Structure formats: structure tokens, C-alpha cells
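Obj.: predict assembly geometry.
Materials: sequence records (below).
Method: joint structure prediction, all chains together.
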Amino acid sequence: GDSVTQMEGPVTLSEEAFLTINCTYTATGYPSLFWYVQYPGEGLQLLLKATKADDKGSNKGFEATYRKETTSFHLEKGSVQVSDSAVYFCALSDQKGSQGNLIFGKGTKLSVKP
Amino acid sequence: DGGITQSPKYLFRKEGQNVTLSCEQNLNHDAMYWYRQDPGQGLRLIYYSQIVNDFQKGDIAEGYSVSREKKESFPLTVTSAQKNPTAFYLCASSISSGATGEQYFGPGTRLTVT
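Observations (raw C-alpha cells):
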């Protein structure tokens, strides 16, 4: 079945460092891809999304490009801030039938030090 | 403001008791979802509902039950049959399942059973 694999954390960076969190997926069909962010003790917030191959999602300085040839959707940010410390989840939309359910990776915890 | 509310934020119960978690949304979304989050496990789908008076089991439905009598509400009951109920529970909604799959999440309820 469909699945998402994220790089394991935790990831610890200094402020203003470059961030990459790897995400690869396995899916039949053409899923939409998402990055969600979860701050401590809170629910998930949609960070960005891409619905077709070569689309680039972007928000708050974060970017990810839907790469069909490598089945990847890596999250990047050029200069992280302490406030970016959170858990990041990659997800894809399950295309079975017309359910559109989301399948999540296990999450990557990011800690940014001042 | 439109959004999803979950109550209470923290819930404590004795083993053997059933407990119901509340989820309400005023986004006029058709689809609603319940997830369970455990450390290092990502999110796992418990139940989902695409329309009022209809719902389907997710990947880990055993020991849980739901109802969908109103569009705005999707309560989750954790029964005494759930072997390991202590977890963080997240409710989500989307415009309709089978669309882009984008889901909006509530703040979560942390359930502790002793």
C-alpha cells in the first residue's frame, strides 16, 4: 500500500542554518503531497502542499518540490529560526477509491538553538 | 473564527471506563477524521466519516466507536476494550474526502488511563 518515509530525527540546528528534511513516498496513482507542522502540545497545521508533479509548495520561507521521478518531497528552508522548532510531518493523500485519506510519515523533530 | 475544537485538552480515566472525546467544527466540512498519535509513531487513522450518519473504520478502529449525527460533530468513544488507550487524540476535517485531501486539525486531547 501507499506509504511515506521521512528522515529520522531529532534534527538539531543553529539559528540561520539551512534545513533539509527528506521525505520519500510510495504510491499508486498521483497523490497530493503535504507538509504539516506540529508545535509542542498542539494539533497539526498545514505548512505547504503540492498537487502534481513539479509543483513547488512554499510558505513562511519553507519550500518543497513534488519530484515524481525520485518520488520525493523534501522540505527545505534557507535560514531557520528558534521559532521553527517543532515536529514536521510529510503526508500524501490516499487515492484508493475516492477517500482522500492522508497517510503520514512518522515525523521529524527539529530543534533550533540560538 | 472558523475552526475545530476538541475538549477537554487533558482527560484522565481509570482503566475499565469508557470515555468520550468531543470534536466540533464550524467550517461546514463534510468529512471528519480521528487520529491517534503515539511518540515516534506518527498519526494513525481510527475512524473517518464522509457524510452525516455514515462512518468507516480506519487502520486501528478496534476498541473505539464513533457517531456522526450532525455535520458539525464527530465524537469518539474510547471503550474499555481498547488495550492501550493512553495517547494524544487528534480530530480533523476536510471539505470533502476525495478532494485534494487537505485536512484541518483541532488542538488535540491527551488521554491518560491508569
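Conclusions so far: Chain A touches chain B through 26 residues (CB under 8 Å).
To do: check interface contacts against the pulldown list.
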